[in-house]
Design a protein that fits this description.
This is O-antigen polymerase. This protein is α+β, with helices and mostly antiparallel strands. The chain has 15 helices and 14 strands. A hairpin with a 3-residue loop joins strand 1 (88-91) and strand 2. The chain is elongated and about 90 Å long.
Length: 530
Amino acid sequence: MYLPLLFMPLWPAVAAVLFGLVGAGLVLQRQGVGGGWLFLALMLLGGVGQVWAPQSLYKLPQQPAYIESATGPVAANLLVVQALENLFGWNHQDGAGGWAQQVGEGFWRLPRWNPASGLEQSEFLTDNWYPITPGQTYTQSFYLRHDGKEARFQITFFTNTGHHPVPTQMEPVAPGVWRLWASYTAQEGDHSLRAIDFFNAGGDWRYLEVGWAKLEVGSSPSAFSWGQTGERSLSWRLEWWLGMMLLGFLVLQGGGVLKQLVPSWMAGALLLGMGIHLGYALWQLGSPPYEGFRPPGLTPQPNLLGHTAVMLAGLVWLLGGSRWGGAALAVSGLLIWVTGSRAAFWGWLLLLGIWWWGLGRWRWSMLGVLVGGAFLLAWQPEWLGRLSQATTLDSSAQSRLVIWQVAIRAFLEYPWTGVGFGNFPVYYQIHRPHGALEAITGHAHNLWLHLLAEGGGLALLGFLVWLGGVLGWLIRLRAGRVLALVAVALVLGLFDFSFFFAGVYYTLLLALGFYISRFDSFLQDRHKIP
C-alpha cells in the first residue's frame, strides 16, 4: 500500500481509486470506519437539486422564417452559442471599440464609426478562437442587415499565421436581409481560427446588424444551427456528483488500512512523491514551453498544485510526526513558491503555525528559526516572488470580486438548485459585466459561493450536514491534527474552489480514515458516525 501513497502527490485521482478499491473490500468485510449517512445526505440533497436545476441557461431567440425555411443537410456549427456577444469594431488608430448591442431577432448592431473617436471602423470581429485542421475546408457565414442602399464586406479567415481574406458571397434571403459567406482551406501551419471576422469594404450605410453566425466544415454554407452551449447535461451532473460522493466514502474506508503500515515509510513515500513533483515543476519553471506561465506540474492548474501541496504536508505530519511534517512543510513551501498560489500560501502559513505549536517544548527553539526567516523575507520580499503580493488587491484579486458578484446573482436567480454543477462558467459568460477583467472562469473562486451558484441552498445544506457531522466526530475523538487539516482545506476554499479536487478532497478523507481507524484500534471501541 506504499505505492498509492507515492502516487498521491503525483496522480491523486489514481491513488484515490486504489484506496477506494481497498475501502470497498473493507466495507464488504464490515471493517469500514462508517460515516455512510453523511455522504448519503450530501449526495441526496445535492442530487435532488440537480434534477430541478435549469436544463438550459440560454434563452435562444426564435428563428426568422427565412432561416427556418432553409432545407438540406445541416452541418454542425463550430461557433459557441454566445459567439456574437463580444462582437466589436476595430481600426488601426483606436484598436477595439464600438461594441455590438443586441437589437432583437437574433441580431447585434455595430456602428460604422468608433463612438469615441469618430473614425471609421476597418474590421468587425469577435476574439473567439477555434481549432482547425490543415487541409480541411471551412465556411464562415452570417446574416446581415444595414440601413443604407449599398454595403460591401469581405470575410477574412484570421488564423494563427495571419489574415487570409477570401472572395465573399452576399446573397439576399429576405427584404433588407442578406447572408454573407466565404470558404477557406486551412494551410500547413494553421491550427486555430478567429471567427467571425470581416472587413469593411465600403457603402453608404451608418450601422449594420449581424446575426445567426456559423462556422462549419465544408465549402458552402448549410442551414443555420446552434453551436455548443458548453452546458453540462443532467446525466453528467448526476454522474459527477454521485461518483464523487461514492468514491469519497470508499476512500474514507480505505484510509483505515494505513494503520497497518510503518509511519515513517508512509511519510517517506508521500514526501518522495512530493519531491518528484517539485522537481518536475522546477523543470517547467525553466522550460521554454512554460516561459511566462506559472508551472502547474501534473495538475490542470497551478493553484491546484499549491493547494494539494499544503494538504499533503498535513497528511505527512499526521502519519509521520513532527519531524516528517517539518520536512513536508519545507517541500510544500517550495511547491507553493513555484506555483505562486497565494491562497495556498495562506493555508500553508496556518498549517505552519499549528505544526509549530504542536512541537511542545521544542517550539521556542524553532521560534527563533521561523522569526529569523520572516525577517529575512521582509528584508528581501522579492525572494517570495508572486507570494509577496498575497495581501495586494491586484487585477487577479479584483477579478475575483466580480466573479463573486456573478456567483451571488446565480444563487439569487436559482436559490434552491443553483445553475447546475459545471454550469457556472456558462452563467458567467452570459452575465459577466461588460469590460470584466476575466472573460472566462472555470469556477467561482470560493467554496461557499460556488456551491450556492451551482448547487443552490440544497447543495449547501448537504455540505453543512456533512461538514458538521465530520467536525462533531473529530471533536468527540479529540483529533486535533485532523481538525487542523479540515481548517486548512476551508481556508483554501475561501479564495478558490479546490475542496473537491482530488489532491485536496481525497487527501483529507485519507487523513480522516487513518485517524478514526487508529483511534478505534487503540481503545477497542467503534466510534462511527451514527
